Amino acid sequence: MMTTALSKLIKRRPWLNVIMNKYKHNSYPLANMTRSFKLSLLCIFALQLTIIGGFELAHDEAYYWLYSKHLDWGYFDHPPFVAVVIKLFSFLPHTEFSIRLGFVILQMASLSLLLSLTTNPWTVGLLFFSFPLASVTGLLAIPDTPLLFMTAMYCWILKRFLMKDDLLNSIVFGLIISILLFAKYHGILLVFFTLVALPKLLLRKSFYVVTLVAVVGFFPHIVWQYEHNFSTLRYHFLERPKSAFSLMRVIEYVGLQIGLAGLFVGPITWFIIFKHKSKDSFDRSIKFISFGVIVFFLISSLSKKTEANWTIFLTIPMIILASESDIWAKKIPRILLTVSFLIVMVSRILFLIPPEATGIKRIKEFHGWRNWAQETARQCQDHQLLANSYQVASKLSFYLDKKISALNYQSRKNQFDYWRFDKELPTNKVCYITDKKEFSGDEVITPDGKIFKMVKNQSLEKLWELKSIQR
Predict the structure, then answer these.
(1) What is the 3-state secondary structure (H, E, C) of the chain?
(2) 344 with 378, same domain?
(3) Residue 50: inside a domain, yes or no?
């Protein structure tokens, strides 16, 4: 039935047939996979779906859920792709499962695209799920998974563009770059290091078609940045706190990048990529991307703290380069790869176990917040809730299913400064949840062990006076 409808649509729209014929080659990588491999992927997908509803939202996930409730072309912290993915499944019940579902699908779509660019499915699959962050972040509603997916899309179209830079490939390439930037700003590094590797692209007329389409596609976000005084760019590039050089911070960064390239096989993965001899322009470009991004953030680590997830998108180019090596056919590397895969897969269970049982402090971010939010609302009685922290405001908003504003007094600017939910409060007397010492009130301990104070009958007007003085 669907096939018949599609055939009729193509007859009415001949240009669709042109596009389908152009991209049908290797568009469906699973069609050539063995039955056991397909079954393995299906089991992993089912495991992901089973787990994502079994633990509460992280602070940032709740924050991005609020993004999706107020769709815009941009937000203070990130472009809007993460919000769109959450919004797509907002028709489902108000649960953690519905928030995360789109990201599990995107993770598997990323792997599918990766398989279309490689020839050793089992090695690719084992490597993909052995990269700790690329593997585990698929469980969470955060921008890294859309970035991972769009990196796979970027590599997919880059390969085709380098083979034939006709008008259609140029337009598709430009569109993919614009969507890549809507996923996360880190995507610009892919384009930059592609040009470093292949400067002759600048001499092609088709590249300027790519550039024009990308700029036009991304233009709404540029307008949003202009209207908001380029606040996101100023924060990320100028206002993020800097610190003195620390050798330990640099060593930690390097160590993390090795471990994140495959739990026990990271050194092998990087060795393969280092020794890899590029056989064509595509190979050369993704090798430059792999090392270029690592060096870029290594330089950044000299003066400021770097986050481990900033390089997660390198999973795609690194696996394309590393998976073709004969090393994985040898016994010890194969054993190490299999063990890495099993440990990273089993580690997902930690999300479901109460933090008291594991002793892992970070897991506290995923447990106990629903009850805490309800108890906090009960203690505040009829007072309107206001938090100082955007994390606490986001958690309260999700688990009470109502808009709770964040004041951001003596803390960094964020999206709540634009939303100003407090303007909708019917009274200027609020129940203020704050971690600032100058306020007195009943102590409230969050599930992750942080001490806040509950200040009842607080004047909203006076709070904003303090905020104004701070600025």
Answers:
(1) CHHHHHHHHHHHCHHHHHHHHHHCCCCCHHHHCCHHHHHHHHHHHHHHHHHCCCCCCCHHHHHHHHHHHCCCCCCCCCCCHHHHHHHHCCCCCCCHHHHHHHHHHHHHHHHHHHHHCCCCHHHHHHHHCCCHHHHHHHHCCCCHHHHHHHHHHHHHHHHHHHHCCCHHHHHHHHHHHHHHHHHCHHHHHHHHHHHHHCHHHHHCHHHHHHHHHHHHHHHHHHHHHHHCCCHHHHHHHHHCCCCCCCHHHHHHHHHHHHHCCCCCCHHHHHHHHHHCCCCCHHHHHHHHHHHHHHHHHHHHHCCCCCCHHHHHHHHHHHHHHHCCCHHHHCHHHHHHHHHHHHHHHHHHHHHHCCHHHHCCHHHHHHCCHHHHHHHHHHHHCCCEEEECCHHHHHHHHHHHCCCCEECCCCCCCCCHHHHCHHHHCCCCEEEEEECCCCCCCEEEECCCCCEEEEEEEEEHHHHHHHHHHHC
(2) no
(3) yes
Residue 299 sits in the same domain as residue 393: no
Per run of 10 residues, the mean pLDDT along the chain (length 471 residues) is: 46 51 50 83 96 96 97 95 98 97 98 94 96 94 97 97 94 98 96 97 95 97 94 79 83 94 96 94 97 95 88 97 95 96 95 90 93 94 90 96 91 90 81 91 91 90 80 53
Q: Which of 349, 379, 402 is the last residue of a domain?
A: 349
35: in domain: no
Structural domain harbouring 194: 43-349
